[in-house]
Amino acid sequence: MSKKNKAGHSYSKRGKAPEILTAVSVLAGIASTLIAVYLITLLWEGKPLGALLIPTLGIALCQIIKGGFYALALWQAHEFAYSSLLTIRNGLIDKLKRLPLSFFQKHKTGELAGIVDHDVERVELYLAHTLPEVAVTGLVCGLSGVAVFILDWRMGLALIATVPLVVIILAVSSPFWKGAINDYQDSTRTVSENIMEYIATIPVIKVFAAGERKTEKVLASMDDYIGKARKAIYVQAAPMGLITVLVEGGVVLVAIVGAYILKAGPLTSSDITRFILAFILAQQFTGSLIKATTLMYNKAVYDNTMKSVERIMGEPVREQPRSGAPAVAGDIVFDQAGFSYDGTAEALTDISLIFRQNTTSAIVGPSGAGKSTIAGLLLGLWRHETGSITIAGRRIEDIPEAELTALISVVQQDNFLLNISIEENLRIGKPDATEAEIRDAAQKAQIHETIMRLPGGYQTIPGEGGVRLSGGEKQRISLARMMLKNAPIVILDEATAAVDPYNESLIHKAISELCENKTLIVIAHHLNTIAGADQIVVMNRGRVEAVGKHGELVESCSLYRSMVEAQQQAQNWNIKEAAV
Known about the structure:
This protein is of the alpha/beta class. It has helices spanning 6-14, 16-44, 49-98, 101-106, 109-151, 153-160, 163-200, 202-207, 211-264, 269-313, 371-379, 401-407, 422-427, 435-444, 448-453, 471-485, 501-514, 550-556, 558-572, 575-579, and strands at residues 332-340, 346-355, 360-364, 386-391, 394-395, 408-411, 489-493, 519-523, 535-540, 543-548. Mean pLDDT is 79; it is low at 1-9, 207-211 and 575-580. Keywords: ATP-binding, Cell membrane, Membrane, Nucleotide-binding, Transmembrane, Transmembrane helix, Transport.
């Protein structure tokens, strides 16, 4: 059995109780039918009413058993199904927690949410409604077919005359509708991703008047989804319709053959009974065979869903080193480090740098030079492929992820707040922080007074992503959270690039508080903010172009000098001059 289907098989294997209960229910129904035929025979023969009592009670008992065991089967099946859903979702969430951050940069939130929510929900359809029927359908099909042969071999042959054609049609058509199901489910995930992205970015879309273009993208994905859904229906409907006609044709053939048999000889009550029973059993046989084809479709959907689950569960988890002595801050050293995103083009080549403890370093360079990639390697988003990276002499691959995360804080332009109270958002930095520590961090981050003006103060819910707060306010709350975390290494990714002058002034004060006595690495676009750095690293095309102080680089590095001149020209630009 393939590794991909191992999880799906284990869930199928554990769902035997509902199958057994359903089988008892179906057998009770068949027994009820047989007794009913026997009762008809007694009536045909003119037996007294007293002789009909036991068969009548037998039918009633069989119906009670049928209903009772079916109810038990439904209860067991749904309990098992929802328990399995919980187990699968918990497993996925646990797995996602342990995957490296680089995994989430390669997969959209909508894609992962669609698998955890929508795809896993389909497992319930199979486990609760399909799996209990699988064995039962085979049992009923086999027993009823054999019974018809026992009653009369000629009617038995008539019943299965069309089965070879059914098998051929299934063999030819199944690859097509399985492929269509796969395309349909992929399209479902895509439209879910696009809708989630559209809703999440509506404010930006409105600001930049990009609504029509984004709406067209969503509508195009919906059109694709509808097309894939129609294809899945058509590809399945045509063979299923033909199979139904052929299978039901078996009942017609049984009726025709039975009629000729009855016509050929003297008519007795046993002949009538045998014919009626064969006709009823033939309908049981064909009904089960048609149901089996439907179950095959549900099984294909289930298998495809489990493949999506297994794609996540099969993702390699970065092996965590054994925790020895706790990781400590110190000099950060890149020694001939290299990295490639796709295994071909190098994003970083031969990077050799030293970020001294408790100093300020800036990384500058044109877009795509590798500035953020250096930060990503230090954060453990990716693993360097050549050379080494150490913190206080310890290789970062030897530092457990939790310890590495505790060493480093990152302040970015975009800061996400959870839809919980501001106090709870702050506690993410230090879960056991006292109320006094939270207030102190907020004051140092220049956000305390703003929070106190909110209707609920620190208990105010900022909305999903912090939509009820300005960008500068979210930035300062994020800085307060970093202060509570109190990591010895701070990475600033142009934290003030997208805020107004008032908020920029407050954020600079907060950053000064945050970075006191810490190792600070600034990924800079505004060169005037890093002129006083202890060292400035100039990156170009994935390599270190130069390292030095501001004045030294202006003299010795043409790239840095051109960047400084370009920024000075931009600062001197004004609307009046542009109009001239």
